[in-house]
Design brief:
CATH class: Mainly Beta
CATH superfamily: q2cbj1_9rhob like domain
Shape: globular
Distance between the termini: 35 Å
Number of helices: 5
Radius of gyration: 17 Å
Structural class: alpha+beta
Helix content: 10-25%
């Protein structure tokens, strides 16, 4: 399997959101319903909806998608001494959907916190981009995102193919300061290690699509 894409599938945008805004957003998220490791389905949260539709973030997503982006899902990841985990090499392949339909390439189906999900085909996932807004500095020691550049162009991969790529391609460690953004494609193979220091690493992960309609009879749920 050969990686040929000139586009690495990710980019780092430093200093997008200022410290006062990050502080306000952090306080608001601490009051949201959540677990120790973070929170799912935050698009209904007013502070999250506001930052997801902020012109600065929309501009980054628009440059990738080529059209006006629609934010449809937001997730808070909160890695800390109390919730410290390892994420193996993987791709993000599940999308939240309003209703179920029998369409080629979609499935299996499941529900998470009342939201319907299906694993999507590459054609749908290639039209999506995620922005990871950092509420804390991401450093070598606190379990930063690691990516295999260019792998987003290989389609949906099997577990064996993922592991083979991880053995062959040198990973890139994505370090970004508080208020910065990592822009990434969901099919980009990525992982993260456990933090080795007790410093927090909170990330608000927001996903965008050019349209909520992703296939015949299938529409993204805003979650």
């Amino acid at each position: 399997m050969i990686v040929t894409s000139a586009d690495p599938g990710f980019a780092i945008h430093p200093g997008v959101v200022g410290d006062p805004e990050i502080a306000d957003l952090s306080v608001a998220l601490m009051r949201a319903a959540r677990s120790r490791a973070g929170a799912r389905h935050l698009m209904a949260h007013p502070h999250v909806a506001a930052i997801a539709r902020d012109p600065r973030l929309l501009s980054i997503a628009r440059a990738v998608l080529g059209v006006e982006p629609h934010p449809y899902r937001a997730t808070l990841f909160d890695k800390s001494a109390q919730a410290n985990w390892l994420v193996v090499w993987h791709q993000d392949t599940a999308l939240p959907l309003r209703s179920q339909a029998d369409r080629p390439g979609w499935g299996p189906w499941s529900r998470k916190a009342g939201i319907l999900y299906a694993h999507a085909p590459a054609a749908a996932l290639e039209r999506v981009v995620a922005l990871r807004l950092h509420l804390d500095d991401s450093t070598h020691d606190n379990g930063p995102l690691r990516v295999l550049p260019g792998t987003h162009g290989l389609g949906v991969l099997t577990d064996d193919a993922l592991q083979a790529l991880a053995r062959r391609i040198a990973p890139h460690e994505c370090l970004v300061s508080r208020g910065g953004i990592i822009r990434m494609r969901p099919l980009l193979v990525h992982a993260s290690s456990k933090a080795t220091v007790p410093a927090a690493r909170r990330v608000l992960h927001i996903e965008y699509a050019p349209s909520l309609q992703v296939d015949e009879e299938l529409e993204l749920d805003v979650a």
